[in-house]
Amino acid sequence: MSENILVTGGAGYIGSHTCKVLAQAGYSPVTLDNLVYGHPWAVRFGPFVQADLLDRATLDRAFDEYRPSAVLHFAAFTYVGESVTDPGKYYRNNAAGTLTLLEAMRDHGCGRMVFSSSCAVYGLPQALPLTEGHPQAPMNPYGVSKAMSERMMADFGLAHGLRSVCLRYFNAAGADPEGGLGEDHDPETHLIPLAVEAALGKRPPLQVFGSDYHTPDGTAVRDYVHVLDLAQAHVAALRYLESGEANDASPCSAFNLGTGRGASVAEVLAAVAAVSGRAVPHTMGPRRAGDPPMLVAQAELAEKVLGWRPAYTDVLEIIRTAWDWHATGRGAVLLDS
Ligand SMILES: NC(=O)c1ccc[n+]([C@@H]2O[C@H](COP(=O)([O-])OP(=O)(O)OC[C@H]3O[C@@H](n4cnc5c(N)ncnc54)[C@H](O)[C@@H]3O)[C@@H](O)[C@H]2O)c1
Q: Is the pTM value of this prediction over 0.90?
């Protein structure tokens, strides 16, 4: 019988793609999601528990019923701007949610966890590309809630033997090219879906925040990593934890997940135009407070330790999958309804 893996936030964007890849790898994903931002249609690869992470009694029942060998922890609120105006919401959901989950894992003897962390734990880069050893100075409560979660996992490792991996994603993008899964956030704040939907005429012109950065074309540069590559990294992290390589000396490890190649906002808009044959309507605006000019990952550690390498290294190919999803897939259906 295949192992059950509890996937918190499995009805969301990255979690649902990961459930598909888990099932393909022979695991049985059990999704736990409160559907605040997730979608019932995205839960297609195993049982579904509709529950809030902070509801300890329901968590206990899920651990009793499914006896997962590991937890992949995606569930979180993800809006950086909102975390600044409503920090309590983020500390409660993301930090206290992680704590509730860790205590349930401890009490049910579940000793392996892979966590969706973020490059937001670093704050403003002092050097690029960002390595895992870069000092951590998160600039908003969202980033702090991720850093706090990582710290809790390390402490639970020392005290209770938890073995864990923190995957620090850069900018997730793209969709499953086989269809049926893709990015569908409401509100949407990510550049690629906003640009694609603006090109489709589903949104007003895109506002570009800042064109006077010290970057090659003046617009901000980010490291876009395909959602299926992130999903594969979770399987690699699970196998790493199963192999026993995480031990008392190193119970909790962190890995950057990016391509190591930055793409500027202007390059993304040009790629959307190239893929779609339509210009992306946009206006140039001022910089947004707190946005670093450039965030690019050094992801060699994930390759060395987990054997992970992104299959998608060209932002144009990532955007092609996003375009197909929004233009012909579920995204288009939802936008029309
Ligand atoms: N999308 C990115 O570019 C990116 C980058 C870095 C890190 N991350 C992290 O990856 C994870 C997944 O991101 P995503 O883009 O798929 O987000 P998403 O909003 O699509 O998915 C998150 C899911 O968690 C669920 N959820 C939230 N709080 C919950 C709770 N208390 N109980 C149960 N379910 C809850 C939501 O309903 C949603 O389905 C998040 O932890 C996010 O912080 C994402």
A: yes
